[in-house]
Design a protein that fits this description.
The protein is mostly helical. 70% of the residues lie in helices and 0% in strands. The relative contact order is 0.14.
Length: 116
């Protein structure tokens, strides 16, 4: 597997890791006329605001890792270089940040409110 393919695969995994925090539970989508037109124009802004609020619940370094990986969508190698971290440390911080958000009751409330 080429280095580009590995980087693309890791970037996809990173995006999935963060999107699972903000995704809605499985089930039928509400059947309304607006749902057929696609997401509201403010959907992306609202999601970004939610993600930024979640990052504020984390220690500075963990939040920086999530911002670089998910907002700026840098590859893991570029993110590690930008933050002056080793790749293994970058992944440790990402794992700790996601686990911290999953375990934080305040983050759970924010996600529940956003899903409602």
């Amino acid at each position: 597997m080429s280095a580009d393919a590995v980087a693309t695969n890791r970037a996809t995994q990173n995006a999935h890791s963060f999107s699972c925090l903000t995704s809605r539970p499985a089930g039928p989508a509400p059947s309304t006329e607006l749902a057929d037109r696609g997401p509201a124009p403010t959907h992306e802004v609202d999601r970004r605001d939610l993600c930024e609020a979640l990052c504020r619940l984390l220690p500075r370094t963990q939040a920086a890792v999530l911002r670089v990986l998910f907002f700026e969508q840098l590859s893991p190698a570029a993110a590690a270089q930008t933050l002056r971290l080793s790749s293994s440390r970058l992944f440790e911080l990402r794992r700790a940040a996601l686990a911290g958000l999953r375990a934080n009751p305040r983050a759970a409330r924010m996600l529940a409110d956003a899903a409602a």
